[in-house]
């Protein structure tokens, strides 16, 4: 009754209608403060649209994100950007009007965009705050010392900003009520007192300092704390991504300890030493989660079972060797077991799991395990994630998997399975989201997965022996990789994947055939399309141009014909195009240069393109591989090729050409990143081969086997990072550019079968990486320049140039002062002369003739 009374009184004072008696009416001063606070933001998403002065919006306790908790004061502001699975980011700044909210206990501004501004010092005056969350809000600069005035604070989260600290963390030591502290991604490298400070916070339960640049020895270089005296309530310590190299023994004395995360540090000792330190005291009985993944821990697994409460053990990505002891079964609380990516080996059998009935996640991939289970084994657990890649599971398809009724991730790649996919598989799991069976010898037909596996997001069956027609597939697939199998027939069934989520489609290297179905409109999210190495024919449907997100398009090694559809120019994000070995026809389209500015790799090799190279191809400044070889392209090589700046500049060459990233969560704690690496067949180092990871390293121009005329433009000399240049089998004339030696990175240079004339430039001897040079069948003349590189090449590299002499050719040059200046000689009549000359005369005669007529010959170009 008192409250109702008070409320109507306040309503009267503030002039707000009382309305319904259940309403709590906010104070006018606080309402004005909030309106002022709102003015600090650009609210593009209308997150604050209920914050208004209209009659129906007057009561600010009802505004979105505002909570008065049955009082008339604003107590809580829930303005985090991530709520209810939606992102609504505010952008702007925090205005001091906030200070009028004197009773504020909770302020959540996480995920908003404060544009690298500093956290305002006045936040330290909101002295009633118990909960402050400014995580991932694009704050920059130092953490204000005034936060040390928030004596009631229990929960402080500043994770994921770009913050630093001023000298030390002394201010933090005043927050004696704090329970949950997260300063992740704050550079704490200068905070020598961090451990002293946090261990003095009596109520601290959870401390999260991921990626804080905490230095290697800081834990152990401090005076030998008795952590159990200091940390009296610490339960969770997340220190991943720092540089710790030890686990201090006294951690083992923290009796409340439940979770320890030291992943991605520099732990490099023996596992048993680390475990001895942790298990020396009472923490042995309390520890539930131990994450030491992504370190360089060595040794074996033998004493893990010492922690009876252990629920989760993550040791993946270390250097642990030996076998898995059977005592692991004693960890009967275990839910997560991850030993992936170590050097473990040996037999894994039923005994290991006999008492692990709570296991949900099993990660043993990338070791050398052999699984030996009786065919009818029924495991005691129900797994949600099974990661057994590279474990020897075969030759039969593991039968026990059919007992697992709740799997969402199933990775049995590289598992030496030579079997068909069993009948029970489709009934297995309406819960399945990811299956990866790649690189086995699985044969037979792929069952229809469309009706039962409704939640499948990713299927990777690459590199097996699957055959028959493509079955119907789940509507909402995001990734489908069926490459390197023997699937045959038409692919029209994939049009059923029409949920609009498809991002990767890789059907390359099968026996698929027919025309492409016109259903690209179902795949607005498609990033990767690889149909290479099949028997597809006919024209490419113009609906391909609807794939506005497409980055990789590979149609190579099919029988596609016709013109490239003009609509392709709408795929303006394309970085990778490979149309090699088809029957595409028409002029090299000008829109490639105009509308596909992101192109890095363009391969039109072995088609029927004609006409000249369009000048606007030179606009492709990111281009690293240009392969127009084996076509009917005529005209000259454009001088503007010096505009291929990516071939001129060093750039970030070590990055792979990764076309797309995709990540999905494979259970609570595992986010799996996924990257598609483009691959293409290129000629490099003298042979044609598939390159994928190193594709980003090479910068290559291949124009061979066309009808190009004119000279090799000297602008080529500015493409300093070229490793391969092939213009062989054209009709190019003139001299090799004198300064060709500037292209210091060249490994392959093929100028053969043209009509290049003149001498081989002496600068060529500077090409120290050159291992494949072919100058054969031209009209070159004179002495081959001396360098260990050139002389070590096979004579055939120079063959068919009658005027050339000197090692490695057997023709000796006219020695002495009077070396014939044949570049002059050959320019007009020379070529024909030397051809005739060598053809009709013996070697001895040549020498004799030159000996006699040398001086005459030299002066005049005949
Ligand atoms: C972000 O800050 C920069 C400089 O600090 C400023 O130039 C820019 O306009 C700000 N952006 C917005 C959206 O406020
Ligand atoms: C982080 O802050 C530093 C200065 O402290 C600034 O140079 C840098 O650009 C900021 N980083 C980002 C991503 O804003
Ligand atoms: C962290 O701060 C220290 C000292 O200010 C600085 O030397 C170091 O480069 C910073 N580290 C990073 C990753 O920003
Ligand atoms: C640390 O303190 C605990 C409890 O106060 C005590 O049992 C233990 O012996 C102490 N350890 C050392 C190394 O002083
Ligand atoms: C074990 O603890 C001792 C004492 O804190 C420390 O010196 C040693 O480096 C620790 N061992 C490992 C492997 O972390
Ligand atoms: C584990 O590796 C260490 C050193 O690399 C080696 O000495 C030891 O024999 C290995 N143990 C086993 C069981 O392979
Ligand atoms: C497999 O494990 C080794 C050893 O930890 C690691 O170097 C390698 O990166 C792992 N491979 C994958 C694909 O994770
Ligand atoms: C299995 O675990 C139970 C507790 O859940 C325990 O009582 C039993 O002794 C264990 N059996 C074996 C064989 O370890
Ligand atoms: C099945 O897995 C989901 C998570 O994928 C989990 O929430 C649920 O509890 C599991 N159900 C059973 C019966 O294990
Ligand atoms: C599928 O498996 C192949 C073969 O191991 C691998 O190269 C590829 O990256 C995988 N693709 C996806 C999307 O997982
Ligand atoms: C060089 O490329 C840019 C676009 O990257 C283009 O605007 C310019 O016209 C090109 N120059 C020549 C000579 O083609």
Distance between the termini: 121 Å
By CATH, the topology of the domain at 518-735 is Leucine-rich repeat, LRR (right-handed beta-alpha superhelix)
**Number of discrete helical segments:** 14
List of distinct ligands in this structure: 2-acetamido-2-deoxy-beta-D-glucopyranose
> What would the principal axes of the Cα set say about the shape?
globular
Q: How much of the polypeptide forms β-strand, as a percent range?
A: 15-25%
Total beta strands: 55
Structural class: alpha/beta
* Biggest β-sheet description: 28 strands, mixed
CATH architecture name of the domain at 518-735 = Alpha-Beta Horseshoe
Query: How much is the average pLDDT?
Result: 85
- CATH 4th-level superfamily of the domain at 518-735: Ribonuclease Inhibitor
Q: How would you classify the quaternary structure? A: single chain
Helix content: 10-25%
| Radius of gyration from the alpha-carbon trace, in angstroms | 36 Å
CATH class descriptor of the domain at 518-735: Alpha Beta
- Which stretches are poorly predicted, pLDDT < 50 over at least 5 residues? 1-21, 653-674, 817-862
